[in-house]
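User: For my dataset I need records formatted as: sequence, then C-alpha cells, nothing else. Please produce one.
Assistant:
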Amino acid sequence: MEKVIEAIKAYYEKNEWNYEYDEEGHFFSSGINMGNILGNVKMYIYVEQASYRVLLVLNSRVEEKYYNTVGEFLHRANFGLKNGNFEMDYNDGQIRYKTFVKFKDREISQETVEDSVMVGIAMIDRYGKGLLKLMLGEGTPQGCVEECERKEE
C-alpha cells in the first residue's frame, strides 16, 4: 500500500498538481480545471490494502426532478465503457466518474496511475456538456449521449 501511495504522490508531483493527502483516511484530494463550462472538478483517490479508486466529482448537482432523465443518460453513457463508470447519488444528486485499480501483489507504474486519472477526466470532458444540458432540462438522454459520442468520431 505504501508503494502505491508513493507512486500516486510522484504522479502528482511530476505533473506539478496541487494535492492534499490524508494519512489517516489514506486518500488524496485535489481538483482539475476542465477549461470549459464544466469548470473545476474535484478529484479524490482512495487507497485501500489491495486497490485504489479514483473519483472525479462534478461541482453541479442534479435537481431531484431530473434524476430519472440524468440516470438514463448515465446508463446510456456507461454502456460499453471499458474502464470506469458514471454514478449518481440519488440522495443528493452528486455525479461522479469512478475508476478502480487492483494492485495486490504487484507494483503500480506511473502509466497505470496516469491512465486511472486521465480516463475519468476524458469521460467527463466527453459527456459533461450533454450531462449539463439535461441537468438544465434540455434535450433527451439518448439524444444527448449520441451528440457527445458523435463529437468523438
